[in-house]
Specification:
Blueprint lengths: L3 H49 L4 E9 L3 E8 L5 E7 L4 E6 L6 H11 L4 E10 L2 E9 L5 E7 L5 E5 L3
Antiparallel strand pairs: 1-2, 2-3, 3-4, 5-6, 6-7, 7-8
């Protein structure tokens, strides 16, 4: 027969393992639910793009919220032409932008690095801001402070910059 203190220890360990499993499952569910709207919007934008535009192969997704929630993607048509597609889910408006009529993400990265060589780019997103397509560069300086710089899609000129947040 197992002694009483051994039984209590086994019972405690069993409860501890059960609680850890429940917390783990709850965390997985929370993370999954948190990403659900983004995945839904990515599916929605890819569906709209494949039905209403010449885009057949999607290469990258973007999301920007600067007063207007916007989802964007980069893709290619059958003949290899590169397009950017911006979708505004709240107003159901969409914009198709041929890459040759704007500046690419790589060009924006180069331009930002030339102007702000001491900062490290965290993210680059395409989206909609004040009635136009923009690139937003999120960067971090050596002190760990973030900066956000907006560039026009059409010509790559700087629109605004907010630093040291």
């Amino acid at each position: 027969m197992i002694k009483d203190d051994t039984r209590q220890t086994i019972k405690f360990v069993a409860w501890l393992i059960a609680i850890i499993i429940v917390v783990y499952i709850a965390a997985v569910i929370i993370v999954f639910m948190a990403g659900s709207p983004s995945r839904k919007n990515d599916r929605q934008i890819s569906q709209v793009a494949s039905q209403k535009t010449p885009i057949k192969n999607i290469q990258q997704y973007y999301h920007l919220n600067r007063g207007t929630d916007s989802y964007a993607l980069k893709g290619t048509a059958k003949k290899g032409q590169v397009y950017y597609f911006i979708y505004l889910p709240n107003s159901k408006k969409a914009y198709l932008l041929p890459s040759k009529k704007g500046v690419s993400e790589n060009e924006i990265r180069r331009k930002f690095n030339q102007q702000h060589g001491q900062q490290k780019i965290s993210n680059v997103n395409l989206g909609w801001y004040k009635g136009q397509a923009v690139w937003e560069v999120t960067a971090k300086n050596s002190q760990g402070n973030y900066s956000y710089t907006l560039y026009e899609f059409k010509n790559g000129s700087k629109i605004s910059e907010v630093a040291n947040l």
